[in-house]
Amino acid sequence: xxxxxxxxxxxxxxxxxxxxxxxxxxxxxxxxxxxxxxxxxxxxxxxxxxxxxxxxxxxxxxxxxxxxxxxxxxxxxxxxxxxxxxxxxxxxxxxxxxxxxxxxxxxxxxxxxxxxxxxxxxxxxxxxxxxxxxxxxxxxxxxxxxxxxxxxxxxxxxxxxxxxxxxxxxxxxxxxxxxxxxxxxxxxxxxxxxxxxxxxxxxxxxxxxxxxxxxxxxxxxxxxxxxxxxxxxxxxxxxxxxxxxxxxxxxxxxxxxxxxxxxxxxxxxxxxxxxxxxxxxxxxxxxxxxxxxxxxxxxxxxxxxxxxxxxxxxxxxxxxxxxxxxxxxxxxxxxxxxxxxxxxxxxxxxxxxxxxxxxxxxxxxxxxxxxxxxxxxxxxxxxxxxxxxxxxxxxxxxx
Length: 399
Known about the structure:
The protein is an alpha/beta fold.
């Protein structure tokens, strides 16, 4: 039996490989294999009780109908207060749009900034969240990779950025703190990036979903650079900071693009989950004790994971400044084990009961790239961290 053909757009659509590996891990577990998983980036903490109670109250009050596509006013006001407080800028409720997770705003931002098939370009960090490049291609634009440098603590070289800007550049995607490396972009670099955006007249998509999970120094947003909020699509969400990944609630702000982002919501989701919008009001307005405790625990785990990784033969791991990932350089380990890629090492580790992600899961490797990395999430217990890294050390050996 034959079926109609599938579009090239769909056939070429990328994926989020963490979920692909997670499915592989779950299959092994169903077969009785003991696997310690470091592959998924979601907090292993429960959603704080006061946030759960807000959703329950909304359900009991019958808050189950459609809302405005941009979101209920009370939730947009809460987001505006949150952005104003944490970014040091004035954000108004009318600037804010709420969606089912922060991820949809990646596609909406690309759709607002580019047109398909005419060569519009979007500069994306490499390595980076794989959905960036996937959505650029799906929307008919061209993805231009911007390599991150271990030597710059997994930021990028400004000269590299300048070299990649062209008359067709329409959007630059920034992610800080960064997935998969945990790198953070400093204030001086953000100011330089802002000057380039103004000079060459392109938009910034600021993916700041890890903004509250930062360990060293102060979080800085490009939206707080003078004159940059107007050309920045500021994006954040509930999943990471409030342990709410399955609640699916994200938000974005921009004073001129908000109505257009809302029309994209109308055309796709209709509106964000109604009762979750009431929960996010309670989350953003506080208390924030649970978030602070969670971040403190992540820092404790980070310190242990990085120390244990650096005790292994052929492994070098920088201390991530934010998010909840370690991104060790595995060049020495690959040489020792006579392997050609981080993916081969990932497969070897999985056979030993340790699940990680490889660098190629985070975008196409840049030509000439000589370093090889894996990503480990420390969104798991200290017991699992010690157990999994002991197995890994058994494969690689001690220094």
